[in-house]
Amino acid sequence: MPTASKEKTVKGQTPPSVEIQEALVGLALDKTDAPMLKYLSFFSEIVPFPSISLLHVISSPKPVWPLWAVYPEKPAGLSTESVAAVIESMRAETKKLPPHLGDEKVKYEVREGSVLEEFVALSLEKEAELIIIGKRSNHKDGVLAKNLIRQGKCNLLVVPEKSHGHLRTIVVPIDFSENSIRALKVALAFKHQAGKGTKVLALNIYQRPNLMAYKIDMTPEQFERNIHENHEKGFEKFIADALPGFEKEIRPLLVESDLPDVAHQVLEQSLEAKADLVIVGSKGHSKLERLLLGSTTETLLNINDSVPVMVVK
After folding, report:
1. Is the preceding omega at residue 66 within 30 degrees of 0, hence cis?
2. What is the DSSP string of 100-144?
3. Cys bridge to 67: 60, 63, 91, 254, which one at CB 3.0-4.6 A?
4. Per DSSP, what are the bridge partners of residue 253?
5. 221: left (phi over 0), alpha (psi -120 to 50) or beta
């Protein structure tokens, strides 16, 4: 997701900005399309989309052994009439897109085979910078999203059915890593491009050390206060070092918790903050790093059915 500069500055620093040259949007041709396209219409006013490819995949998984000996590994192919019928259905879904997403920007793609493989293949062919897919409410299975992050090379935006068409609050879960910095930069870009009224919350969920492990002359209340104050100072230093000049643009949301399940807490805090978008930094670009996506992100993609989640690389 390339970053360019703008004229306005903050304390001598140039605010980041984002433009997505090529986006790949999945159309399932079911009830998840309407809210996803509605969000796309709004989102594309904040982040320019010069070119969009709309993809519908007719699932046709490869046979497993020993059926390879009987059936071909690849589907026989779609007829011209079948492709035309699907494209007509896709056009019906997209007829309410706003003028800035007109036909000159939109390309329709129909493929047959593995949904994951076709998404990854087309994203590489188009050199897509962002994949956008919808998600059914109460559907606790984010397999496609997780695999797209692991095998794809571009950013991913998952839009649940209950998403809202505005951008007032962006939540970025951070762990003080390079991944966090990357996600915060994208959030700052969206904040500046969305205009006044949009805020960025940096959410860090930390565990309280066991007081019994320390031989200190403090009450439990004093100990907790000391830990929180030190955490606040650490956060301030992290932002000052990683994003100098933007300290006042990012609000800390430091939450102490003794629970190991971070994903549910991220969702709970995001809902409490009335987040319109959660931005998560992926672990990296190598095959191993993509494989080790992280249980927090995986669980968040599974359990969340109301807040759009963007995973940036």
Report:
1. yes
2. GG-TTTEEEEEEEE-HHHHHHHHHHHHT-SEEEEEE-TT----HH
3. 63
4. 203
5. alpha
Neighbour order of strands in the sheet with 277-281: 106-113, 51-59, 22-26, 130-135, 155-160, 309-312, 277-281, 169-173, 199-206, 250-256
Domains of the chain: 3-312 (3.40.50.12370)
Contacts of 223 (CB under 8 A, 6+ apart): 211, 214, 216
Among residues 157, 135, 145, 142, the alpha carbon closest in space to that of 33 is found at: 135
Mean pLDDT of 30-52: 91
Taking the C-alpha atoms of residue 162 and residue 32, their distance in angstroms, rounded to an integer, is 9
Phi-psi region of 284 (alpha: psi -120 to 50; beta: other; left: phi over 0): left
Pairwise CA distance, residues 115 & 62, whole Å: 11
Determine contact, residues 306/271, Cβ cutoff 8 Å.
Answer: yes
Encoded amino acid at 299, one letter: T
Q: Tens of pLDDT along 221-254?
A: 676 777 778 888 889 999 999 999 999 999 999 9
User: Which residue bears the tokens 């939109």?
Assistant: 106
How far is residue 281's CA from residue 155's CA, in Å, rounded to a whole number?
9
Alpha helices in the chain (DSSP H): 33-46, 80-94, 115-126, 143-151, 178-194, 220-242, 262-272, 287-291, 295-303
Which of the pair, 203 or 68, is modelled with greater confidence? 203
For residue 310, CA distances in Å to 154, 186, 280 come to 11, 10, 6
Structure tokens at 145: 């999203």
For residue 136, what pLDDT band results from cuts at 50, 70 and 90? confident
- pLDDT for 232: 85
DSSP state of 32: T
pLDDT, tens only, 77-99: 788 999 999 999 999 999 888 88
